[in-house]
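Exercise 7. Given the components listed, write out the predicted structure of the assembled complex. Treat all entries as one system.
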Amino acid sequence: MREFRFERPGTVADAVRRPAPGTAFLAGGTTLVDLMKLEVMTPARVLDINRLPLRGIDQTRDGLRIGALERMRDVAAHDLVRRRYPMLAQALEASASGQLRNMASIGGNLLQRTRCGYFRDVSVPCNKRAPGSGCPAIEGENRMHAVLGASDACVATHPSDLAVALVALDATVRLRSRAGTRDVALRDFHLLPGTTPEREHDLRPGELVTDVIVPDLGWASRSVYVKIRDRQSYEFALASAAVAVRRDGDTIAEARVAVGGMGTRPWRLPAVEAALAGRPAAEASYTAAAEHATDGVRPLRHNAFKPALMRRTLVRALLELERIR
Amino acid sequence: MSVSPIGRETARVDGPLKVTGRAPYAADYHPDGLVHGHLVLATVGRGTLRAMDVTRAEAAPGVIAVYTPFQPVRLINTFQGFGAENYVPLQDTTVRFRGQIIGLVVAGTFEQARDAAALITADYAGTPPRTSLADAGPGRSQDIVQVLAPGVASIDDVLRAGPVTITTTVTQPAQHHVAMEPHATTATWEDDQLTVYSGAQMPQRSAPAIAAGLGIDPAKVRLICRYTGGGFGGRSPAWNEAKLCAAAARALGRPLKVVLSREQVFTTVGHRPAVRQTVRLAAQADGRLLALAHDSDAEYPAAGGWPLIPAQHTSGVLYRTPNLRLDQRLVTLDTPSTWAMRAPGEAPGSFALETALDELAARTGVDPVELRLRNYATQHPVEGRPFSSKHLDQCYRLGATRFGWDRRPARPRSRTDGDWLIGMGMSTAAYPTDREAATVRVRFHDNGRVSVASGTSDLGTGAWTVLAVAGADTLGLPVEVIVPELGDSALPPGGVGAVGSAVTANTMPAVRAAGRAAIGTLLRAAVENPRSPFHGLDPADVSYRQGRLHSGRRSMGFDELLRAIGTPALDAIGATDPAQDSPYAFHSFGAHFCEVRVHRLTAEIRVNRFTSVFDVGTVINARTARSQFIGGIIWGIGHALLEADPIEPDGRYAAATMADYLVPVNADIPDIDVHWLGYPDPHISESGARGLGELGTVASAAAVGNAVYNATGIRVHDLPITLDKLL
Amino acid sequence: MTESYGISRRELLGRSGTVAAVAATVPLAVADTAPARATTGEVGVRMTVNGSVTPLTVDPRETLLDVLRERLHLTGTKKGCDRGQCGACTVHVDGERVVSCLTLAATLGGSRVTTIEGLARGDRLHPLQQAFIDHDGFQCGFCTSGQIMSAAAVLADGRARTDDEVREQMSGNLCRCGAYPGIVAAIQQARKEAS
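Answer.
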């Protein structure tokens, strides 16, 4: 860990006042402190924002507002979340461990860094950590890596479960900077690696995530998050699916579908949603629609199984949804 | 008459300290003036260090010293042969593997040492390391074991002839011990006397090994490891970090603590080598074996390490066959040192053999349990000696009943529960018990306590409690008055090393011998000491029973006697040295039964339940024995389904963290039904106990794999069996 | 003392107390009053550890885990990975289980920290500690402090009732000896005793 200056801004305005390079916001610390120890992140200045009033889970005109400093555990346990967006609660509860869910904030969860082993090891090249140094994952141990959205510079998977469910729900992040407040759709917030994998999100220097807004979607009360992994718990996803369906009798009227463990960012699947619409709610429809999930996949040496796993995970999630109520 | 605690449920005597956080482990000591060290590791796979830039580290706040090959602290390489790590760090500029120690930074605080270490840069002249077992050809043969029936010229002829032939090749990548406690050493010097706090399975071998590395008299080194956070083989030698810590502490004249980071543990203190194995079987149509050949090619590091011989105690022990050939080869690679890891050869070897047996069962249509009974060995297939006590057939039958083996679908992929495919598998475990010399001291104290001291170690195995149980049994006293002592090289020499599942079986007889000798000492003092009420009696007229001395109507507790004669304590050493030329072969046995479910769509494998029945002779403490069995089975589940560390062409381990190297979590583990038969071994010792600590780990992975086959119809030969291989 | 936002550290720290009082979901934070050491960058924190108010001046790099172990010599809390990957360092901060290895001590002004050393009342073992002994919920003992602190929080939370729920809730605490079945049994015993 590099030496750094520890500061505790008293207000949100203070926190964003001086967007000096090398500044990091510290919330739960489960990503930042970890990566500082590994010297993957080396901020010169750490702003402890934990006591800023970025809290609360409440209904607003725009939808459900979740303060960025709300802890994963509290969001997962919140009655509004559990009733109206079960997939959110499930995604949170499938993440990390009880201890880490007590610590990690919602804002931090969306900003967490990839678990790519090369990114986390400063003794090897990594374009995301050290731009231009190269990407050993492309030819290396890439079983966990992305098959969607990858580039020649980076194939790292986005690790958040929560973000997958939020993308399916068209959530928005509210950002605060010296210049003011703006809302960005989560779908656009995380960036594709392209040639600049070090740029992971549309966050300007010094800008702080203050809230997450989940628009109202009545039928999301029927939704699931299914996470597939080698170990039954305390592991990142090989594949995951967040699925919500509005049914009209035995027919699927509308669907929301996103997958995790597959993409370089949380991956919404509009083609699958379209393929489900108007179809009977049955396994054959799910299987057929899931074929569209893997349009454009680029498997690597060790993750060639992922497209098939993604399709099967989708089918399984849709079947599990069918069994609710 | 007090009831003997042997075989009963005795709570761990170290339990209260462990559940309150008061049991001190190696990194928990804080001698005055303590400073902190952090290692620097090589980041190339092979080559030579040309230079290291330590200027920024030396200038960093709090830094006291930086040691590298260019500014070393002296260590002596006392071992350059085969079978152990063959170098010591910082004495040359050679890089033998990626992750080798090339520096040590000492600073006032942990943070200062860690962060200064990160400022060091190294310049290497590298050469490509050899890292791939798959790309290497067959390795060097060790001793080839071969038994051929009369008239057979080559086992290959029999293996070709059949009528049924099976060839099974299985592979597994490197595995790691991942003991929960990272290796740590705290070293303090007082004049020329060194005290080392460091987890050790064999404290009485580690202490002199450290002394040799420092070039000092072994009598000047004391190693203390009363509480150690797991061993599993990975703490059987004294690794370089301990020697380096002690040497630097001496050079600095200050107590020093070096704790490995978790990542450093993966390359500096041993791992189970990657191995490729082929088992070939020839059998009659009814499954009776005609020939069994087991070949292996295991990674063996150029830097030295533990040679993996997986067939010796598996295929060389388990089944009756007229023709047998074991060829266990080693492939030299530029990898970190390998080391014995819980059931070192037996765990991988049994996976290969018991997978092949399951394939033979499937091919012949013979039930897997019946197949094993048809090939049952009553004598050691290689040595020809009868087994000292073998009731494995009862393990099979009892296990099958407890588990409900009769509900196993004979046809794979034919049973489901909702969206899950259900399958059952079984396997056989065997593990040898070495008979070793042992020394124990029993000491009566005038406060009514009796200490039982052994220079062995308790890695969590239960040795603390076994000493207490053995002492209580020998002396007819309650367990509570026995004070066990272990984990200290200064205890009487002859402590059984906590390796090879050998501590209990070999320490029990020594406790009895020491107990008898101590009673003799007590009786002698009773008749010889003028202040004793028994003074002047014929020794034959004084007896010891349950802590009291009796003669006629006179009776007094040993503590009363000691107080009467003004002696705080009396003790005696007991030593045992069993003959090595026994007519019997000593092995423990067991049968595993496993049920798994595999999701029909996404293919996650989950273990539903597990039943094992063991034949281990007398069990000394039921509670800790059960935990050893269960822990071993959980290792088997990890072995089968999770554990793998792929090595990359540059020598980098790709999964060298606790998040990437997956070991089972609580949610992976179902109820585990463990049972043992309880036949005392009449030949091993008067206690009748054989070893059991590693037995649960043997072949449990194969039971899982065989169950996965039964569930899915898919046989996975490259471990671990992950869902991608079943899609 | 370095300047930030044009105010001194003392003002900043003083203000943080005010802010914490505003954010209602944060436990009441006491303003940090421990004197800062002269060295630039050190931070005064005043936390309550096992019931004792503990003023400290910490290097901002210090984790709660290292402060407990190296500064306060409360070595019951163990460092298994230092990366949030094993759970051996689990303690309670303001009543909730956290991994102390990823918690910077500098952030804990006004917090209540409970470690394994503070779980029992006096000499009597906590029911969970006794249950871990009764069910042999450990072997080497290195993960045990973290397991017990984690289990205490799971019981206080009250939602995990079935064995499977307990297993899931306890999956952030690795045990390489494989004491999981004993751990589950111990927690269930303590839960039943408490109800």
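Discussion: Chain A touches chain B through 34 residues (CB under 8 Å). Chain A has a mean pLDDT of 97.
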